[in-house]
Amino acid sequence: MSSKKWFLTWLGLSVLIFACVGLINLYIDPYKVFNWEYRHSFVSERSAFLSKMTRLENYTGLECLILGSSRAELLQPSQASERSQLKTFTAALGGAMTYSKYAFGMKALDNKPDLKEIWYFSDFYEFNEKKIPWSTYRVEQGREYFLKDELEDVVPNSEYFQTLISLKTLRASIKTIKEMSRESESAYLDDGSTKISIVKLSFNDLILEMKMNFLFYKLSRWNGFKALSEKSKWLIDDMIRKANDKSVIIKVVLTPIHPELMRKLESELGLKKLWDEWRDFWRSRSSKTVKIYDYTESEKYWKSDSTGWNDGVHFSPEATQMILEDLVGESNH
Amino acid sequence: MLFNSYEFIFLFLPITLLSYFLVKSARLKLFILAISSYLFYGYWNYKFLPLLLLSTMVDFYIGKKLGDNEDHPLKRKYLLWTSLVLNLGLLGFFKYFNFFMESAAFISGGHFDSWNIILPVGISFYTFQSMSYTIDIYRGHQKPYDDFLAFATYVSFFPQLVAGPIVRHDELVPQFITPKDKGRLNWDDLTQGSQRFIIGLAKKILIADTIGVAIDQALIHLPDFSTLEAWMCALGYTFQIYYDFSGYSDMAIGLGRMFGFTFPENFHSPYKSKSITEFWRRWHMTLSFWLRDYLYISLGGNRSGKWGTYKNLILTMLLGGLWHGANWVFVIWGIYHGLLLAIERFFKGKLHIPDGVKYFGTFFLVVFGWVVFRSPDVAFALLWFKKMFVLEGGLDYWHFVAKLRDKYYPALLVGALLCFFAKSSQEFDYNVFRKKRWLLCFAVTFIWIVLGLSQESPFLYFQF
Question: How many CB atoms lie within 10 A of CB A205?
Fold first, then answer.
């Protein structure tokens, strides 16, 4: 084969494949971020944010909304509904940062007239947000809340092209097509809850698990954490303002971490000052309509052994029940 | 802008190639290369463009003046020193100021607050390239060029601007002044250049980055390492740095070839060396040869007697180490290699060592050097060595995140096998790649890599 033929064939093949990948991703739109006029209309499960947002939109009679990360996922809305007598939906998402919690909260405040309470599980690391994840920003149901001057420069548009011809998006598209044909069971129920299984750890295993968690969080959630994000603060204050307008009470849970992990946070990462700033931020927002449930210092609830913990960051079912009791106001904190 | 980025692959490169080959005038072609190169550099930080231009203009002017003053040795000396002071001054300030001040403060028991100095990308490379021009004219090896555009393009040419190879002016400027086929598109060059580029991309992304991600995360926990983990990181980095740097060089050489220009080779299977001397003839060859020609020989080379030669070797390697970065680990790494070279020179011809031992020994001597090179400071390096040689932790490797570890092993294995048994990139018969099955292989590799380009991964040698 001549060099010219080789090069042009290679170039043509590459362009063709990139175009096919781009078209597949554009048509299937697994994260629902491109919103092409001719895209497939089914709901994709690829994006947890998208899945929960769709379910929230379809949930009628919502009275209580749970916002949080994986730490709030153990709180089952059915139990919460039963204890609080409020029809509850959980928008808790693993790894959720302020932006996604904000989008869920504002969606509910705008569209759910029966909403009475928001239970906001605040994680320390959510204030380490640097920019909105592209998959959150671009989702149709999320975008409307982020097109604000205060949040400019948080999303590079160059990510559009990267997402369009990315292998990750292609895998998501293929998985979506397979699920379409098999009608597979959704990971989420109508009230937003997820099926979660818990494996109880011994104390030694807990310590080992915490070591690994520390490694993970150090490189991700706590990486480069120098100051509380101003944008995260703005989002929270904006949501509080809206909640006040709608007479919705926000119950804020300041989620602790295991004392052992806390010691490493202080000694190895020097994050004590930020930790205190995070708590002070919320305490300063305490009012008749914003109630703070601060669990960060109470070893009464959060023992150093493995009782209250699933790992160093996630609570056990027993600890989650204690929080639930506090939130519905039946026990003193 | 990185070679392994969407903006380079889909925007910068196609536009530059098309512009270059669509215009007919050789002069305009050169102008396009110069502008593209300055745009490429400016994309990183446009504020440092004047620095690049200053270094270029000063050395071009000094070169002209050196040519005008052939019969005035004192004036020539002053001119040369001006070039050296400017180039080394720039390098010294941006790269070494904080290092020297902190070291001086440490020695004197004082304190120095580091200045916030941004290191211009590629300064170590373009200052060396620029200096070699004035030195060669001074030595009478080269006449000054009349064509400023050709010279400016040489200094700034984007394929090799930020991380080499260190191309000598006489290797590239003549090609710019009189391009092959008047700069017309040559399909062989375009094809083989693309193939070399893809090979480099594969080395960088599929091997270097895969290993690098795993060991970077693990090394944070060096104090808790087992012996196995310490060795995993040492061997991992040995292959990571090779594939990262040689991959970049392949891309640079491939890009130059696409435009019809030939660059010197930079690597030649360095881990197949039987001695450290041989290693330095195979690793970062353009730097080795630059150090030999402009530093080692200037110091006296091997004409200074036995002990003078050893001193010159150690001093050259010390400065070569320092060139890599403003940190005592690079100085120690340089001295280490200098000592090894001197020791080899001392025992040359006196010992009879089987080839297997030579290969094995050389490889592990190089690995130990990389442990120092990779460490952020001397204490880290000492701890790492301790972890490697004092048995502890059994076969634990849980500091390697499972998801990354599963990719680390195959990347390391493939990397090692290719290093020891495969031909180096310049030894391939590129005509073989014109077969259909290779076309598919290159296409799939290229597409796979580009589809996976979701995160920025700069080249290790960008920091030098």
Answer: 13
Q: Is the alpha carbon torsion for B186, B189, B190, B191 positive or negative?
A: positive
Q: Do A3 and B447 touch (CB under 8 A)?
A: no
Q: For residues B141 and B111, is the Cβ–Cβ distance under 8 A? A: no
A321 class by beta-carbon count within 10 Å (0-12 exposed, 13-18 middle, 19+ buried): middle
Question: Which site among A6, A134, A163 would you substitute to test the B interface, given the most B Cβ atoms closer than 10 Å to its Cβ?
Answer: A6
User: For residue range B218-261, what is the model confidence (pLDDT) as tens digits?
Assistant: 887 788 888 888 999 999 999 999 999 999 999 999 999 999 99
- What pLDDT, on a 0 to 100 scale, did the predictor assign at position A152? 59
Chain-centroid distance of CA B324 in Å reads 9
pLDDT of residue A333: 40
Q: Tokens standing for B389?
A: 């040689």
Considering only CB atoms, B443 lies closest to which of A2, A13, A21, namely A13
**Which of A2, A9, A10 to mutate against chain B (most B CBs within 10 Å)?**
A10
The verdict on B191 touching A (C-beta cutoff 8 Å) is yes
Tell me the angle at which helices A98-111 and A48-58 cross, rounded to the nearest 10 degrees.
Answer: 10
**What b-and-e string marks burial along B433-461, b requiring 16 or more CB atoms within 10 Å of the CB?**
bbeeebbeebbebbbebbbebeeebebbb
Q: Which residues of B touch A17 (CB under 8 A)?
A: 443, 447
Query: Which chain A residues are Cβ-neighbours of B187 within 8 angstroms?
Result: 2-4, 7
Q: Is B138 left (phi over 0), alpha (psi -120 to 50) or beta?
A: alpha
CA pair distance B123, B54, nearest whole angstrom: 12
Q: Is B132 left (phi over 0), alpha (psi -120 to 50) or beta?
A: alpha
Closest CA–CA distance from residue A168 to any residue of chain B (Å) = 7
Output the CA–CA distances (angstroms, integers) from residue B2 to A327, B41, B161, B451, in the order listed: 51, 10, 12, 16
Q: Which residues of chain B have pLDDT under 50?
A: none
Nearest by CB: B434 against A6, A170, A216:
A6
Q: Closest CB to A4: pick one of B187, B401, B439.
A: B187
User: Is residue A261 packed enough to be buried (19+ CB in 10 Å), middle (13-18) or exposed (0-12)?
Assistant: buried
Torsion sign, CA atoms B460, B461, B462, B464? positive
Residues from chain A contacting residue B222 (CB–CB below 8 Å): none
Mean pLDDT for chain B? 89
Q: Flag whether residue A3 sits within 8 Å of chain B, measured between CB atoms.
A: yes
Q: Which residues contact B11 (CB under 8 A, 6 or more apart)?
A: none
pLDDT at A229: 87
Return d(Cα A151, Cα A311) in angstroms, integer.
34
Q: Looking at beta carbons, which residues of chain A come within 8 Å of B217?
A: 215, 219
Task: State the Cα–Cα distance between residues B27 and A154, nearest whole angstrom.
Answer: 43
Residue A330 confidence (pLDDT): 47
Q: Is the peptide bond before A256 cis (omega within 30 degrees of 0)?
A: no
Q: Name the H helices within chain A.
A: 3-28, 48-58, 77-84, 98-111, 134-137, 140-143, 158-164, 167-182, 203-219, 230-245, 259-269, 272-283, 317-327
Residues of chain A under the 70 pLDDT cut: 40-47, 130-137, 147-158, 181-187, 195-216, 218-220, 298-313, 330-333
Instruction: Considering only the beta carbons, identify the residue of A3, A162, A218 that sits closest to B454.
Output: A162
Tell me whether residues B434 and A21 touch, CB distance under 8 A.
no
Q: Cβ B436–A21 below 8 Å, yes or no? A: no
Question: pLDDT for A149-201, tens place per residue?
Answer: 666 555 556 677 778 888 888 888 888 888 776 655 566 778 888 765 555 66
Give the count of beta carbons closer than 10 Å to the beta carbon of residue B193: 25
Q: Is B353 on the interface with A (CB under 8 A)?
A: no
In the stretch 215-254 of chain B, residues with CB closer than 8 A to chain A read 217, 220-221
CA–CA gap between residue B451 and residue A141 (Å, rounded): 27
Give the pairing of strands A117-122 and A290-294: unpaired
